Amino acid sequence: MNSPDPFIPPVKVENVSESSGLPKDHEKARSLRFSVCALFLSLGLLGLLAFFLRPLDWEGSLRRAVEGAEGVVIKSRNESDQAPILLHQRKDVLSILDVIEVDDRSSKYSCACVGDTLIQFVAGNEVEHVLTVHHGKHLRWIDGQWPCDAELTAKSAQELDDLFVRLGYQLPVAKSSPHP
Predict the structure, then answer these.
(1) What is d(CA 144, CA 61) in angstroms, rounded to the nearest whole number?
(2) Rounded Cα distance, 69 and 121, in Å
(3) Which residues pair with 86 in a beta bridge?
(4) How far is residue 87's CA from residue 166's CA, in Å, rounded to a whole number?
(5) Are residues 81 and 48 in the same domain?
(6) Which of 1, 42, 44, 174 has the fewest CB atoms within 10 Å, i.e. the most exposed one?
């Protein structure tokens, strides 16, 4: 090696990277740190994706919210249609919860209608939670924890209809209206 200064003898430095000018072991350490950071960043992003893409616990969140409910009121949104059905026992709450089964993959939107039937969960003299039935196959939890309308499975929609009929509730004609 030629030294730019004739009075300083040339020094051959070994183990130095020509691209970075750093000792090769420092360059390896820097590369390793970068790889570890990239790995942790990737794992963090995967964790966030898994959190936000996990299936929603539709039925469980509703059950937890209404665990203090002592009764249910089922009524038409158009109050002149028929008298409300008043159910005053915890077993009535459970009978409704037991037929609700949501199709998570199909529950992606909320329609613009207000629904035709109200299911009110009551504790004491207070209505605590309200579900509205839309087109006979969707439920909307008013001010609840669901991000959109919950589409019932075909079996669940039929069981809910059957339960309403057994309780003496006249299903609305609007139920059969077309819906996407």
Answers:
(1) 9
(2) 6
(3) 73
(4) 13
(5) no
(6) 1
- Please tell me whether the overall predicted TM-score, pTM, comes out greater than 0.85 for this model: no
Give the domain extent around 18: 1-54
SS (H, E, C) the chain: CCCCCCCCCCCCCCCECCCCCCEHHHHHHHHHHHHHHHHHHHHHHHHHHHHHHCCCCHHHHHHHHCCCCCEEEEEECCCCCCCCEEECCHHHHHHHHHHCCECHHHCCCCCCCCCCEEEEEEECCEEEEEEEEECCCEEEEECCCCCCCEEECHHHHHHHHHHHHHCCCCCCHHHHCCCC
Q: Are 85 and 17 in the same domain?
A: no
List C-alpha distances in Å: 32 to 16, 46, 81.
17, 21, 72
Q: Do 167 and 89 touch, CB atoms closer than 8 A?
A: no
Residues 97 and 36 in one domain: no
pLDDT tens across 71-124, in order? 999 999 887 768 899 999 999 999 999 999 999 888 888 989 999 899 999 999
